[in-house]
Write a structure and sequence with these properties.
heterodimer; A: mainly beta; Signal recognition particle alu RNA binding heterodimer, srp9/1; 2,3-Dihydroxybiphenyl 1,2-Dioxygenase, domain 1; five-stranded mixed sheet; four-stranded mixed sheet; 2 helices; about 40% strand; B: mainly beta; 2 domains; globular
Chain lengths: ~150, ~160
C-alpha cells in the first residue's frame, strides 16, 4: 500500500481514514496508458485492472492516476457518458506537473518518448510546455519563476 | 509501510518529499478551467477543507488550493498560447460528456456523503454499490463531476 503524509495527516490508497485525491482519465487502452505513465514519469503501476470493471491504478509522485475505458451512463451518474477526448484541442481540465527543473524534465521525458507540443516557453510567472498523452490529453509541465511561489 | 515525515506544504512518500512549488523532482496537481476563481476556491475550501494558498491575480497567475495529498490550480479559460498554439481552454460545454475528472477515494463514503452534502455539495445520486466499490458523484460549480468512491473490503483498488 502507498502512503503519503502531509503535516500530521497520512494519506493512503485506498485510504484507511479520511480521503485521498486521484485523477481519473478515460482511455482507449488501459495497458498502453499505464505503460506510458510508467515509462515517461516513472509512475508505479499498482494494477492494470480487469475487464469486469476494475480500473488501472498508477502512482505518480504524490498522487494516483486511475485509468479505464469509457462507457454510457451508470446508476450513480445516469446522465453522464465517459469517452476519450472528442476534440483534444478543446480542454477543460488536465494533469498539471510542477517541476523544479523544466529543461531537465523536457529532455528526459522527450528521450523517454513523450511528445511535447512545443519546447518550454517563457510565460508570466513560469516557464511552461505541454505533453500529449496517448489519448490526446494535454499534460502541463511548468516551473514557477523564483519570485512566484505559485506561478 | 514506510517511515514518513512531513512539514508545512510538504508531502513525503517513502523517501521522496513533495513540495509546491517543488525544490527538486516533480509534484502533480490538477488544473481546472473555471468561470469564477474565487467561487471555485471557496467551494473546494468549504466542502473538502482545502487550503487556499493563492487567489491568483489579474495578470494571469492562477488560484492554488491544497486538497489532501494534491493541489488544485484554478484559472479562467482562454485561447491558444505560444506553448499550446492549437489548444483552447474553457469550462465544460457539456458537463454530461466527460473524459477526465477528480477522483476522491474515501474510507467512509456514508460519512463523506452526509458531511459534504451538509456543506453544500450537490450529489448526482446517493452512494450506490458498484463492482468493487460504493460510489457517488458531486457536481462542482462549473459542472465538473467529482467521483467519490470507497473500495469494498478485500478490494485493494476498487
Amino acid at each position: 500500500m502507498n502512503q503519503v503524509q502531509v503535516e500530521q495527516k497520512s494519506y493512503q490508497m485506498p485510504p484507511q481514514d479520511g480521503f485521498t485525491v486521484a485523477r481519473f482519465i478515460t482511455v482507449v487502452d488501459v495497458e498502453r496508458s499505464a505503460r506510458f505513465y510508467e515509462r515517461v514519469f516513472g509512475g508505479r503501476i499498482l494494477t492494470v485492472g480487469n475487464s469486469e470493471g476494475a480500473p488501472g491504478f498508477i502512482q505518480i509522485a504524490n498522487t494516483w492516476l486511475i485509468v479505464y475505458f469509457g462507457g454510457g451512463p451508470t446508476p450513480d451518474k445516469p446522465m453522464v457518458t465517459l469517452s476519450v477526448p472528442a476534440d483534444p484541442d478543446c480542454v477543460s481540465s488536465f494533469m498539471n506537473i510542477r517541476v523544479a527543473d523544466i529543461q531537465a524534465c523536457y529532455q528526459l521525458w522527450r528521450s523517454r518518448g513523450a511528445k511535447f507540443l512545443t519546447e518550454p516557453k517563457d510565460k508570466y510567472g513560469e516557464i511552461r510546455c505541454y505533453i500529449r498523452d496517448p489519448d490526446g490529453y494535454i499534460i502541463e509541465v511548468g516551473q514557477s519563476k523564483p519570485d512566484f511561489a505559485y506561478g | 509501510m514506510s517511515e514518513l515525515k512531513s512539514s508545512t506544504s510538504q508531502i513525503q512518500v517513502e523517501q521522496q518529499s513533495y513540495q509546491m512549488p517543488p525544490q527538486d523532482g516533480i509534484t502533480v496537481a490538477q488544473f481546472l478551467t473555471v468561470a469564477d476563481i474565487e467561487r471555485s476556491l471557496r467551494f473546494y475550501e468549504t466542502v473538502f477543507g482545502g487550503r487556499i494558498l493563492s487567489r491568483g491575480d489579474s495578470k494571469g497567475a492562477p488560484g492554488y488550493l491544497q486538497i489532501a495529498n494534491t493541489w488544485l490550480i484554478i484559472n479562467v479559460g482562454g485561447g491558444p498560447t505560444p506553448d499550446k498554439p492549437m489548444v483552447t481552454l474553457r469550462v465544460p460545454p457539456d458537463p454530461d460528456k466527460v473524459s477526465s475528472f477528480m477522483n476522491i477515494r474515501v474510507a467512509d463514503i456514508r460519512a463523506c456523503y452526509e458531511r459534504w452534502r451538509k456543506r453544500g455539495a450537490e450529489f448526482i445520486t446517493e452512494p450506490k454499490p458498484k463492482y468493487g466499490e460504493t460510489r457517488c458523484y458531486i457536481r462542482d460549480p462549473d459542472g465538473y463531476i467529482i467521483e467519490v468512491g470507497q473500495s469494498n473490503l478485500g478490494v485493494a483498488y476498487g
